[in-house]
Amino acid sequence: MSDAIPFTGERYLPGVPGEIAYEHVHRYAFAQRFAEGRRVLDAACGEGYGSALLAGKAASVLGIDIDAATIERARERYATCANLAFEASSVASLPCADASFDAVVSFETVEHIGADDQRRMVAEFARVLVPGGLLIVSSPNRVEYSERAGYRNPFHVRELDRDELALLLGEAFPAQRWYRQRRYLGSALWAEEGAGSYEALTGDASSSRAMVPPEATYFVVIAAASDQALTAAADAAPSLSIYADAADSEWARADHEASEALRLDALVIARERELDDAR
Fold it and tell me: DSSP code of 40?
């Protein structure tokens, strides 16, 4: 099977540069701490890069995705990873036994299905998790992602705001720890309730003050059926997590655009001088 997979925007593909890479890879890098030594389900795994990241820490990982061709590519690409398997399935009807996973990870999934399937998906996550298991889920914040940006993603069926996502998760996973993710010269995950220590300041030359977490482009939620199950794992997570790719590609892009703007300004100035000289 060819490795030349076209990027449509429906699924992130490794190698696609820019903020989409920061956002998607950061979520999996953040989730690795919750996968360590555990049996993990990566629901809607796409091409499988995130499942492979989790498998580096987990006892075992099963990646599932509804697209059979995508699953076949993932099997081929990660065939040498002994604790990683893939299966084609809907998230609303998982091919897994009850209480067969210690953690479920599902990033940017819920918005791709309708309301009924969203409820079925959460119920399935609860069914396959052991008592005390963790769910780590992300979802675009409709208010910031779509409404304020005036943007409609053609692959999204039903986006949620914060209250809607909390309500959807709440019946099966009432214990929740929320993070706000937003591009920040890379990607940043800000805990809504600070548990650890960090300093972030804003202001100007006359004063400074503590920076509050920015509005979320995406919500990342660590959830469990009980406060006791949540606290043991989530308290070990940082209050602020920042990720950038090794090549610092966003900085490189910003520097290139700044250089290009200076080059074009110089051309305009030179042309204006030529016109002045010709008059």
Answer: E
Q: Which two tokens stand for residue 85?
A: 């398997």
| CA gap 160, 141 in Å, rounded | 6
221 within 8 A of 26, measured Cβ to Cβ: no
Q: Collapse the DSSP code of 168 into the 3-class scheme (helix H, G, I; strand E, B; otherwise coil) and give the result.
A: helix
Contact 106, 27 (CB under 8 A): no
pLDDT in tens, the chain (279 residues): 445 555 454 555 555 455 566 777 888 989 999 999 999 999 999 999 999 999 999 999 999 999 999 999 999 999 999 999 999 999 999 999 999 999 999 999 999 999 999 999 999 999 999 999 999 999 999 999 899 888 888 999 999 999 999 999 999 999 999 999 887 766 778 788 755 667 676 765 566 677 788 889 999 999 999 999 998 888 878 888 888 777 777 777 777 887 888 788 888 988 888 888 887
* 221 and 164 Cβ atoms separated by less than 8 Å: no
Tokens for 231, please give them.
């606290």
Helices 249-278 and 19-35, packing angle to 10 deg = 170
SS3 state at 33: helix
160 C-beta neighbours (distance < 10 Å), count:
21
pTM of the entire predicted model: 0.78
The tokens 């990720």 sit on which residue?
243
Contact 164, 122 (CB under 8 A): no
Q: Which residues pair with 175 in a beta bridge?
A: 224
